[in-house]
Amino acid sequence: MSSKSFKLATGLSRTALRHANPRKDLFQLEGRPRSWSSSALNPQRQPRHRHYHGSNGNSSSRSYNGLRWAGLTAVGAAGVVLTWENLRPDLVPQLLPLVEAEETLTPGTYKDPTTGIIVPTTLTSPTSGKTLQLVGTGVRTVSFLGIRVYTAAIHVEKEAFEKILSGKLKGWENYTPSKLIPPFVQARKDELVGEALVASLLEQGYDVAVTIVPLRNTSLPHLRDGFYRALIARLKLPQVISSMSPAELEESTSKLTELRSFFSSKSLAKGCPLVLHFDSRRGQVRFELPNPKDASKPAEVLGELKDGKLSKELFLSYFSDAGVISEELRTSFAKGCAAEAR
C-alpha cells in the first residue's frame, strides 16, 4: 500500500504510526478524564490556535479551534486503534465478547429458545405413574405490546408420543404439522385436524401435562382467573355446549366454583412452575406446585378438578381453533409431533 493510500485509510502517516505509543493511546480510550486534544497524544506539544476573522475583523472564540483540533486528533487516534487492532488485537479493549458463552444444560432438560426457560424433558404422572415426554414449548404474550407473561410446556404420555412418530396412533396416521397449524390441510373430509385431532389423544385415554412458568412475579389467583376465563370461553362454543346435556352443563358449572377454591392468595415468584396433570383415564386435572429448590421432594397439591369435560376443555384451550392461547406453543407442539426442530 502506498504512503498516500495508507494515510487515507488510517488517518495517520507511517511516520506518525511509528512514533505513536499504542499503550498510551489505548489508555486514553478507556475513559480517563483527559480531553481529546493534540496534547493527549503528545503532552509536550501545545496546540497552536489560528485566529479567524469575520467580516467585522474581530477574532472568533477559541472554542472553535479547540473543537477543530479535537476532531482531527480523534480521527488520528481512531486510525491508531484500527491499525493496532490488525497488528496487536490483544492490546485493543473489547466492548463485547467475541464469543457468547453457552449455558450448559443438565441431562434431561430443555431450554425454550425464546425465553431461555429450562424445563424437564420428561415428567411422571402423579396419578397414573405414566412417563410423559416433552413435545413443545412456547411463550404466552398479551396486549398489542407483546408482553411476555409465561412460558408453557406440553408433555404427552410417552407411549402415545412414540405411536404418533411411528404413525400407529389412531387418527394420527400420516401426520404432518399442517394438521395442527392453520390453515389446516385435510386430505379427506373425515380426517381429524386442529383441536379435534388433539382431542382424540385424550379420548384414547392418554395422559398429558401443561407446565406454566411465570416470566414475572404473579399470584395464584391471577392464574386461576386465567383458567376460569378459558373454561368459560370453551363452554360457550357451539360444538361444546351442544355436546352437553343440561345436567352435565349444570354439574360442570358447579365444578367451576370448586376450581376457584383451589387457589389461595399465595404469590408465585418468577420462574416457579405450576404443573397441570391431566389424567384422561380418571377424567380429572391435578394442579401442583413443584418444590423450586428440590424437584425430588413431593409437590404441593393445590387441588384436583374431577370433571372429565372441564379437564378436556381446559387442555384443548391451548389448541382452540377459535383462538389459541399461544401460537408459538401450538406451532412448537405441531412440529414436535413430527420430530421436527422446534
Tell me what the structure shows.
- The protein has 342 residues and is an alpha+beta fold.
- It has twelve helices and eleven strands.
- A hairpin with a 6-residue loop joins strand 1 and strand 2.
- The strands form three sheets. A seven-stranded antiparallel β-sheet has the order 3-4-5-6-9-10-11. A two-stranded antiparallel sheet has the order 1-2. It has a two-stranded antiparallel sheet with strand order 7-8.
What is the fold's blueprint, element by element?
Blueprint: H1 3-10, H2 14-19, H3 22-29, H4 38-41, H5 63-87, E1 109-111, E2 118-120, E3 122-124, E4 131-142, E5 147-157, H6 158-166, H7 194-203, E6 208-214, E7 218-219, H8 220-235, H9 238-241, H10 246-260, E8 267-268, E9 274-279, E10 284-289, E11 300-305, H11 308-316, H12 327-336
Antiparallel strand pairs: 1-2, 3-4, 4-5, 5-6, 6-9, 7-8, 9-10, 10-11
Q: What's the overall geometry? A: globular
- Give the helix proportion (percent range): 25-40%
**Secondary structure: number of strands:** 11
Query: Would you tell me the overall average pLDDT?
Result: 80
Number of H- or I-type helical stretches? 12
Q: Main β-sheet: number of strands, strand sense, barrel status? A: 7 strands, antiparallel
Alpha carbon gyration radius: 33 Å
**Separation of termini?**
50 Å
Which regions are unreliable across 5 or more consecutive residues at pLDDT < 50?
Answer: 5-43, 49-61, 77-102
Taken as a percent bin, the fraction of beta residues is: 15-25%
What is the string of SSEs from the N terminus onward? HHHHHEEEEEHHEEHHHEEEEHH
The strand line-up of the biggest sheet is 3-4-5-6-9-10-11
Class based on secondary structure composition and strand pairing: alpha+beta
